[in-house]
Protein: ABC transporter domain-containing protein
Amino acid sequence: MALVGQEPRLFAGTIKENICFGLRDILKNYRSYI
Structure:
């Protein structure tokens, strides 16, 4: 069993940066992933 908070966690930055959080090289080469 786990507790999941109801508050969304977003970071200061663009929507793209929030979606890509944790992916190291996608911010540099994101067009190759699309």
About this structure: The chain has a mean pLDDT of 70. The helical segments are 15-19, 26-33. The longest helix spans residues 26-33. The CA atoms of residues 16 and 24 lie 13 Å apart.
